């Protein structure tokens, strides 16, 4: 082979390599997760005494698996909402109780996840506990699932009351037998909460805060939670005894999508 042909061959090889590299698809850069605004805080930094049982970080919820966007079991709220909860906690502690939160800020991606789940009519893995009397085709029409949630605005939380000393709730074991959420407290999944008449996220009219069928100790417990929080600026959702929003909301028209994690609160 002559020097010229060798040189030509080398040039062709170089050009082919250059073309291949140039034509290769650009690797997409991972888009960084959005951060929480500066006035969002972890509830634990405002009041470490409030019990946290973040249900959507666990498989014990109406879907049956951890929900998209819940990366750590941390309650995140706007600071005014967290500080108001702290005031409520001080009042309840004097009476021998503590608050327990099930859910706080909820990213839009989690709400979207709920919508996709609700549209999949074949997935009824947790029906026997959370919506035994509701046909899944009715979840949107009956208001149990929606495309937007006040939780995504940062001032809404789901919570209950626990009598002190608070005993831990045992972990849910996926696949274990399910009991209706409105069954007597001794029969349904154990929760260290006082008896509210139903479990959390019970898709049933018995969950309506003032349902007349809820009487006695159960009604007293609901009214203790309701009156304590309403005295400090919270509004209850009448269809869910556990659902409260602190007013006025810091972000009444904004639905955030940063993940539920400590990293979302970092300022760097």
Supply Rg.
25 Å
Shape: globular
Give the neighbour order of strands across the main sheet. Answer: 2-4-5-7-6
Range of strand content: 5-15%
Low-confidence stretches: 1-8, 11-24
Query: What string gives the helices and strands in order?
Result: HEHEEHEHHEHEE
In total, the number of strands is 7
The helix content is: 25-40%
Note the total helix count.
6
**Largest β-sheet summary:** 5 strands, mixed
The span between the termini is 61 Å
**Structural class per helix/strand content?**
alpha+beta
> Mean pLDDT score, rounded?
91
Description:
The structure is a single chain. This protein is α+β, with helices and mostly antiparallel strands. Helix content is about 25%, strand content about 10%. It has a 5-stranded mixed sheet, covered by helices on one side. The longest helix has 21 residues. The protein starts with a helix and ends in a 22-residue tail after the last strand. The N terminus is likely disordered.
């Amino acid at each position: 082979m002559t020097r010229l042909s060798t040189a030509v061959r080398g040039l062709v090889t170089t050009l082919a390599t250059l073309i291949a590299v140039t034509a290769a698809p650009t690797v997409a850069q991972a888009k960084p997760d959005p951060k929480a605004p500066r006035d969002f805080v972890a509830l634990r930094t405002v009041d470490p005494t409030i019990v946290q049982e973040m249900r959507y970080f666990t498989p014990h919820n109406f879907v049956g698996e951890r929900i998209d966007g819940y990366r750590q079991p941390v309650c995140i709220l706007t600071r005014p909402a967290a500080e108001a909860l702290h005031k409520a906690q001080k009042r309840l502690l004097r009476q021998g109780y503590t608050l327990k939160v099930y859910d706080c800020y909820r990213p839009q991606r989690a709400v979207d996840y709920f919508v996709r789940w609700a549209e999949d009519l074949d997935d009824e893995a947790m029906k026997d506990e959370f919506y035994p009397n509701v046909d899944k085709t009715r979840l949107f029409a009956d208001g149990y699932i929606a495309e937007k949630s006040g939780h995504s605005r940062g001032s809404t939380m789901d919570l209950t009351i626990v009598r002190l000393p608070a005993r831990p709730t045992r972990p849910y074991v996926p696949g274990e037998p399910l009991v209706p959420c409105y069954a007597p407290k001794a029969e349904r999944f154990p929760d260290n909460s006082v008896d509210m008449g139903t479990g959390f996220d019970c898709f049933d009219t018995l969950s309506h805060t003032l349902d007349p069928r809820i009487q006695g100790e159960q009604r007293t417990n609901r009214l203790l939670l309701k009156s304590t929080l309403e005295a400090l600026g919270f509004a209850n959702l009448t269809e869910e005894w556990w659902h409260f929003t602190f007013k006025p909301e810091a972000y009444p028209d904004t639905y955030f999508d940063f993940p539920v994690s400590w990293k979302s609160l970092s300022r760097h």
